[in-house]
Design brief:
four-stranded antiparallel sheet; Rossmann fold; alpha/beta; seven-stranded mixed sheet; globular; 15 strands
């Protein structure tokens, strides 16, 4: 018997907005859509008000965009060299259109300039002015070694934006990558930014609470049901609305 795979039906943004008009209304700062956002199911459970139905960006993209746009405002990035790890489509276009030199890297992803291991980068010291790696370090076995490498290739006075998914009060290290969590090596906690402080001149964190609520920068997720069979090392968290965090590391 052939098993049929059901595909999710993704309604066009205008139709989705019409059919979900009673849901909370938000604004996407990236594409300027206004209306309800799509809910989202993944390995962590169901999340509410996640995805912009027009451009497909998620909570973390909105949070990171708002923070990064503020940081870049006033900087002459046309004279700066940037390295983007695991480049997301939107941010790839956003950065490439602004930075004087823009390069991309990943361990396995197709279409990048460099296939590299973040734990052992081939670049010379002080090569880049700006480094962006979103939701990357939770996959790296030796994340401290990767952080040291990022700092090594960053120019004096340079910036590294290194957000991870914050899903715990305190970071939980796993003995091996969990295939049920997209092969995460750890559950990063609210304390994760402490890992950056020994290697950077300053570390600032911006959170969802510092951003306008109209952009829906929070993670609406019931984490009280953790741990689960698939995620036995994740710890429960109180509440159903959680903050996202963007660490800003200055060399």
């Amino acid at each position: 018997m052939v098993r049929k795979i059901k595909k999710k039906i993704r309604l066009p943004a205008p139709l989705f907005k019409l059919l979900n008009g009673a849901k909370p209304q938000f604004e996407c700062p990236l594409c300027h859509y206004h209306g309800p956002f799509r809910d989202f199911d993944n390995f962590g459970g169901r999340r509410l008000h996640v995805e912009c139905p027009r451009c497909g960006t998620l909570e973390r993209h909105r949070v990171q965009y708002l923070v990064v746009a503020e940081i870049l405002n006033g900087l002459d990035v046309s004279r700066m060299k940037m390295l983007h790890f695991a480049p997301e489509p939107f941010f790839r276009d956003f950065f490439a259109s602004r930075f004087g030199q823009y390069e991309t890297a990943d361990l396995c992803m197709k279409g990048v300039d460099y296939h590299v291991d973040l734990q052992e980068l081939p670049f010379a010291d002080a090569t880049y002015d700006f480094i962006f790696a979103s939701h990357v370090l939770e996959h790296v076995p030796d994340d401290v070694k990767a952080i040291r490498e990022i700092r090594r290739i960053l120019k004096p006075g340079g910036l590294a934006i290194l957000p991870v998914p914050v899903v715990a009060e305190k970071t939980v290290e796993y003995p091996e990558a969990n295939p049920h969590e997209a092969y995460h090596m750890r559950a990063p906690g609210l304390d994760y930014a402490e890992k950056f402080k020994p290697y950077f001149a300053s570390v600032e964190t911006r959170t969802s609470e510092s951003l306008p609520e109209k952009f829906q920068p929070f993670i609406y997720e019931d984490r009280s049901v953790w741990p689960t069979k698939e995620m036995p090392l994740r710890r429960p968290m109180l509440g159903k609305r959680h903050i996202d965090v963007v660490p800003i590391c200055r060399a």
